[in-house]
Amino acid sequence: MKRKFSDYIRKQFQVYLILVLLTIAIVFSAVTFSLFSLYIKNELKRDNQHITDTIHQDFSELFYKLDTLEDKVAQEEIAENILYRELYNMRSQSTIKYNFTILDGDLNIVVSNLYLYNQEQLLKSSNLSESLRYMKLQDKSVIVDEAKTSYLEQQKASMFILTRFADGYIAIEPLVESLTEITNQYSSFTILSDQYSNILFEDTTRYRDEIGKVSVDKKQNMTVKSQFYIYDTPVFLTSIRETTLNQNVFVIGLGLILTILIVLIICVRPLINRITKSYASPLDELMNAIEQNKSGSTTYLIKEQSFEEFETLYEEFNELTLSVRDLIAKNQELAERKRWMEIKHLQDQFNPHFLYNTLESIRYEIIFDPDNASKMIMALARLMRYILNYGRDTVTVTEDLGYIEDYLELQKMRFKERLNFKIEIQDEILTQQIPKLILQPIVENSIKYNMEHVEVLNIAILGRIVENYIQFDVVDDGIGINQDQLDEINDNLQNNQKARDNLGLYNVHKSIQLLYGKEYGVFIQNIGKGLHVMIRIPYKGEVNHD
Questions:
Q1: DSSP letter string over 292-360?
Q2: What is the CB neighbour count within 10 angstroms for residue 452?
Q3: How does 246-262 read in b/e, with b if 16+ C-beta sit within 10 Å?
Q4: Where are the beta strands (DSSP E) in 390-487?
Q5: For the chain, what are the domain ranges?
Q6: DSSP state of 528
Q7: What is residue 454's three-state secondary structure?
Q8: How far, in Å, CA of 100 to CA of 173, rounded?
Q9: Is pLDDT above 80 for 13?
């Protein structure tokens, strides 16, 4: 495909502009990414400090209260229920909720908030036995270990802390749920570990290796580590945020790049277009005119003043367009004249056909009822005036209905009580223009082919809007038509084959299709007893007579 001169100039400007803007955007995004990474690091440090302060302060207050309670127990004997209440109040006032169990020197449980099942599990657990052994070997007052006892879910512990208390021991077991509530307030992951990297608590298992130690890939994770003491035992708190999860940074950076590029290109593009237009305007105008001509438009003429060479081309193009326009107009006029001549020829066939039938009826009435014959002649005169009507080919629905009423009244004078009719037309279509005499041949056929075979004939003429077209229905309760004959008539209508016995019907159908197209016309169907003829023409909307 050949390149356009205007597109080439415009593209060159855009390429150089995009290169400059892309360089600026990359530098800006790199700076933004660095600042964002620094912000994340500082946020991680704040998270770590807040969690460390909360846990350290809670445990410091806990051991202070335990020391105070131990002194009180040493000075006076305290009942178990009072001791339980003291410990329970301490637990309620603590941010970190925990299980507590006091054991005597023989490891019998004195006071505990554990369920009975959990108390049995504690006495059998390796936590208790191993902590007692380490306490004796290392001569320590407090042992901190990870929780290994299988408790019921509501009392599941994260750590096991054993300290001497009076003549026995007290086991403090911080709940997993309580520590998780604290760490979940922050966006980072949190791990508590001892000095040997054994995990005491974690709010995710992704940084635990197969032997239960902390394992963090520092290439893929950003970490901040702090230390505090539970009594005299060092505990390390590690806050972690995955750098692979910093997709937000990438999205923000990419979004900034795209936004900057798009905004700057949008802002500068009018300038680029203005420059290229000054070079390529004459060519664009000529190409646009050619495209308009190819699409079938013959009204587009080039009016732009340009260089002398282009003005010569413009004048030649305009002369050619005007010649084509004149030729098309002449051909359309010839086609329109030919179409209306054919319609006029078809419409003229209605008049002698109807006149013959009516005069035949009057001939009989003159013999039997001269007064009625006189009325029929007056009605016929009105009808003939309407038919002639100074050469008009289309009339309103109201006008054509007046003619049909005169026609039916004329026939009723002849057949009297044997002929009944009703006309119901929707108000919205009364002002619509329709071809003259499209209903009369249908009504005439209904009377012609039924009156010899029925005692009484009822005819209904209906008019209504259906979707985007007007439908007239002529329905009678006569003898109908044999199905084979009906199929033949419908085939003739659809294939535009003129039939001698249905000339009026064919003329109506042909006239409608010439005026409006092949989707409109006459359609016929049996309705059990009688016949239903439908006439469809397009609905033009409300007509304004102002």
A1: HHHTT-----------HHHHHHHHHHHHHHHHHHHHHHHHHHHHHHHHHHHHHHHHHTHHHHHHHHHHH
A2: 8
A3: beebeeebeeebeebbe
A4: 394-396, 419-425, 433-435, 457-466, 469-476
A5: 22-242, 294-348, 421-538
A6: S
A7: coil
A8: 6
A9: no
Phi, psi of 262 (to 5 degrees): -65, -45
**Which of 27, 21, 185, 220 has the alpha carbon at shortest distance from 35?**
27
Can you tell me the distance from the alpha carbon of 161 to that of 142, in angstroms, rounded to the nearest whole number? Answer: 7
The CATH superfamily of 421-538 is: Histidine kinase-like ATPase, C-terminal domain (3.30.565.10)
What are the pLDDT digits (tens) for 483-532?
888 888 888 888 877 666 677 788 888 888 888 888 999 999 988 889 99
3-class secondary structure, 424 = strand
> Exposed/middle/buried for 433, CB within 10 Å: 0-12, 13-18, 19+?
middle
Only one residue has tokens 């438009």, namely: 297
Question: Which of 198, 189, 286 minimizes the C-alpha distance to 236?
Answer: 198
Enter the tokens of residue 474: 């002529």
What the block records as the tokens of 332 is: 């359309």
State in Å, rounded, how far the first CA of the chain is from the last one. 56
77 sits in the region (left: phi over 0; alpha: psi -120 to 50; else beta) called beta
Q: What's the chain's Rg over C-alpha atoms? A: 51
Find where tokens 């400007």 sit: 13
Instruction: Give the tens place of pLDDT for each residue, 337-380.
Output: 445 544 554 455 455 655 676 777 788 778 877 887 887 888 78
Closest CA to 486 of 501, 471, 507: 501
The predicted model scores a pTM of 0.47
